[in-house]
Design goal:
alpha/beta, two-stranded parallel sheet, globular
Length: 289
C-alpha cells in the first residue's frame, strides 16, 4: 500500500498506474474516424487507459441507451438521473460506427434503464441484430446490467447469442450495498448462473479492488463467480472518478494481482485478466477463444 494520510487514504498514484500514451497507426486511424464521424465509444469518452492497445487489436466498446443511468453506484462516473427517451435508431447507428471503424470485436454495454418496462432489453436485442446484419464478421461481447433479475429480459440477450455475455459483480459481498447501492450480490450471481444454464458459450464477470476488501473476501468472490461456471474473470484497480465518489482505500500491488491471476487459473477460469489497469473489456478479443 502507498503512503497514507491521517485518514488512512492513499496519497498519489503508484508508479505501476502510469499509463502510456496511445500510439500506433491503427489507433491514429480510428481516432481520426471517431472524431470525423462523431462516433460514441466509451473507450474515448471514458478515457480508458487501454484504449491504444485495444484499438490496435481492432476492439472497441460502445455504450447504448444513453449516458444517464437510473442507478447511483458509488464507483461509477456515469451521470445519475432521469434518462432521455430511447433512440430507436441507435442500433443502426452503433452498427454503422462499427462498420466505419472496421472493428473486429465489439463490446456493447449500457446504463441501467430501470425506468423502462423492458429495462432496455429490446434495444439490446435490436443492437446485436443490427451489428450482425451490417458486420457479419465482427464478434461480439455484451456487458449487461442485471435487468433486476427478470429472466424475460435476460432471455432477449440469450436470443441475440453474442459470443460472450458479461455481467460484473464489481465488488465483494460485504461492500456491495455501499458500492453498487441498488444491486444485490446474489442476484448478480443468479444472472451469471442463468446465462450459462441457458446455453451462453462464454460468460464473464469482473471485480474492482482497492475499496477496502480483504484478500479472503476477494478469493470468496472469485470462487462464487466460478461456482456459476463463469469462464472469464477480470480483476482491476478501482480509481475514484471524482471527489463525490467512493475513495480509494488501497492501491493493490502488481505482485498481488499476479497472485489473484494464478489462483483464478487454479480455480478453473478459462481466462483471468488481473492487473492494475485491467478493465472489463481488456483483451476482450481473446475471450471468445
Amino acid at each position: 500500500m502507498e503512503t497514507a494520510t491521517e485518514n488512512n487514504l492513499p496519497v498519489g498514484k503508484p508508479k505501476w498506474l502510469k499509463v502510456k500514451l496511445p500510439i500506433g497507426q491503427k489507433y491514429t486511424e480510428l481516432r481520426g474516424l471517431v472524431d470525423k464521424y462523431k462516433l460514441n465509444t466509451i473507450c474515448a469518452s471514458g478515457s480508458c487507459p487501454n484504449m491504444g492497445e485495444c484499438w490496435g487489436e481492432g476492439t472497441a466498446t460502445f455504450m447504448i441507451l444513453g449516458n444517464i443511468c437510473t442507478r447511483s453506484c458509488g464507483f461509477c462516473g456515469v451521470k445519475t438521473g432521469r434518462p432521455e427517451n430511447v433512440d430507436w435508431d441507435e442500433p443502426e447507428k452503433v452498427a454503422r460506427s462499427i462498420k466505419i471503424m472496421n472493428i473486429k470485436h465489439a463490446v456493447i454495454t449500457s446504463v441501467d434503464r430501470d425506468d423502462l418496462k423492458d429495462m432496455g432489453s429490446i434495444i439490446w436485442l435490436e443492437t446485436v441484430e443490427a451489428i450482425r446484419r451490417m458486420n457479419p464478421n465482427t464478434t461480439l461481447e455484451t456487458l449487461i446490467p442485471d435487468f433486476q433479475g427478470n429472466t424475460r429480459n435476460i432471455d432477449r440477450i440469450i436470443e441475440a447469442n453474442p459470443e460472450v455475455v458479461s455481467h460484473n459483480m464489481e465488488t465483494v459481498r460485504r461492500l456491495t450495498r455501499e458500492v453498487r447501492i441498488q444491486a444485490k450480490y446474489d442476484k448478480s450471481l443468479e444472472v451469471l448462473r442463468y446465462l450459462k444454464e441457458k446455453g451462453i458459450r462464454r460468460t464473464k464477470s469482473g471485480i474492482m479492488l482497492g475499496l477496502g476488501e480483504t484478500e479472503a473476501e476477494v478469493l470468496e468472490t472469485m470462487q462464487d463467480i466460478r461456482n456459476q461456471n463463469v469462464d472469464i474473470i477480470t480483476i482491476g484497480q478501482y480509481l475514484q472518478p471524482s471527489k463525490k465518489h467512493l475513495p480509494v482505500k488501497e492501491f493493490i500491488t502488481p505482485e498481488q494481482f499476479e497472485k489473484y491471476e494464478k489462483i483464478g487459473k487454479e480455480m478453473g477460469f478459462r481466462h483471468v485478466e488481473s492487473g492494475a489497469l485491467v478493465r472489463s473489456s481488456y483483451h476482450a478479443e481473446k475471450h471468445i477463444l
